[in-house]
């Protein structure tokens, strides 16, 4: 059994990692850390875990984590992660980092959207952990940057079209909606029940920090620099992301042909489900699972293609994808611990 640590376990992503790893056949969770809950029983922090764990939250210290675990998930905020990860690597640990700190290859680009980077020497080594697109690079890595939730939904939606050269990258418009858990567990006025319930609003318009990450992956796929209009919205639900992506087709096509293209592109992918013609994804059908559901439609009047993508932002958008990456890095079956049927209703 591989000993695993969850650093920053008191957030939504941390407890979701625990939920998935608790049923993993090849790992044992030996360490959970939390700054604000250090010394407390993890099951007291999250009563849903009572009867499943006796772990006590450790302080967020490299020495403690390195002594207790072989493999580490860092579910820390950006900036905090970059100060913690180098020590884990120096101690010989493999790491999946769920912050934004190692997702962007260009340190100047990262600093333009976030803050100064304290370990930029690791950016060239970190592998972007979207298995469907970078699987063979993930396998030998010791540091994997787990993708953001919005970028995951967008990249999987557009990869078949960009790889085939069927759309004009300059025409891309991305409209995304996320459940409130995407804002994290910390108390914020904008995430309060009365602020979210029965509401629906855009935010981060023109300046959301996931924009350069989205553009980096889409540029890889297209083979040319890609710039997008990306607008996120806040949904009055706990979980889920629905991204609707619009693009101009370079040549005339139809829905049936593109559904077939998507089905062939993702034929061997265990967590991508391409919907049949006439069916579109619903966030209610991926809740709690590691699936990404995709639907594609061609508007025959405008010859634009519309791709709809649905994921659970805490699973395929965070913890589930992190476990998927761990499985690849450790040589396990990629689906280990992740064969969970989504909750419905």
TrEMBL record:
It is found in: Cytoplasm. GO terms for cellular component: cytoplasm. It holds the Pfam family Semialdhyde_dhC_1. Residues 3-141 form the Semialdehyde dehydrogenase NAD-binding domain. GO terms for molecular function: N-acetyl-gamma-glutamyl-phosphate reductase activity; NAD binding; NADP+ binding. The active site is at 149. Its EC number is 1.2.1.38. Belongs to the NAGSA dehydrogenase family. Type 1 subfamily. Catalyzes the NADPH-dependent reduction of N-acetyl-5-glutamyl phosphate to yield N-acetyl-L-glutamate 5-semialdehyde. HAMAP family: ArgC_type1. This is N-acetyl-gamma-glutamyl-phosphate reductase. It comes from Trichloromonas acetexigens.
């Amino acid at each position: 059994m591989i000993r695993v640590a969850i650093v920053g376990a008191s957030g939504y992503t941390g407890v979701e990692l625990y939920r998935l790893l608790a049923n993993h056949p090849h790992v044992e969770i030996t360490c959970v850390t939390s700054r604000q809950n250090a010394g407390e029983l993890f099951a007291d922090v999250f009563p849903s875990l009572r009867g499943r764990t006796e772990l006590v939250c450790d302080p967020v210290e490299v020495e403690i984590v390195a002594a207790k675990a072989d493999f580490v998930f860092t579910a820390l905020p950006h900036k905090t992660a970059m100060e913690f990860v180098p020590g884990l690597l120096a101690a010989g640990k493999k790491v999946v980092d769920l912050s934004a700190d190692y997702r962007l290859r260009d340190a100047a680009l990262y600093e333009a959207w976030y803050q100064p980077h304290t370990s930029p020497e690791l950016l060239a080594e970190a592998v972007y952990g979207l298995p469907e697109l970078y699987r063979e690079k993930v396998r030998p890595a010791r540091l994997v940057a787990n993708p953001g939730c919005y970028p995951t939904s967008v990249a999987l939606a557009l990869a078949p079209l960009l790889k085939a050269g069927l759309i004009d990258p300059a025409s891309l418009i991305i409209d995304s909606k996320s459940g409130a858990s995407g804002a994290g567990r910390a108390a914020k006025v904008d995430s309060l029940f009365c602020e979210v319930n029965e509401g629906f609003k855009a935010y981060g318009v023109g300046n959301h920090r996931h924009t350069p990450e989205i553009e980096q992956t889409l540029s890889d796929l297209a083979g040319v620099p890609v710039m997008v209009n990306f607008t996120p919205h806040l949904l009055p639900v706990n979980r889920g992301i629905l991204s609707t992506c619009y693009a101009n087709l370079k040549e005339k096509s139809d829905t049936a042909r593109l559904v077939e293209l998507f089905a062939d592109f993702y034929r061997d992918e265990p967590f991508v489900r391409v919907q049949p013609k006439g069916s579109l994804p619903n966030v209610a059908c991926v809740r709690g699972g590691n699936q990404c559901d995709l639907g594609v439609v061609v508007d025959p009047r405008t010859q634009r293609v519309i791709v709809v993508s649905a994921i659970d932002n805490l699973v395929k958008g965070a913890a589930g994808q992190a476990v998927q990456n761990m499985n690849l890095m450790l040589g396990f079956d990629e689906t280990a611990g992740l064969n969970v049927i989504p909750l419905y209703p």
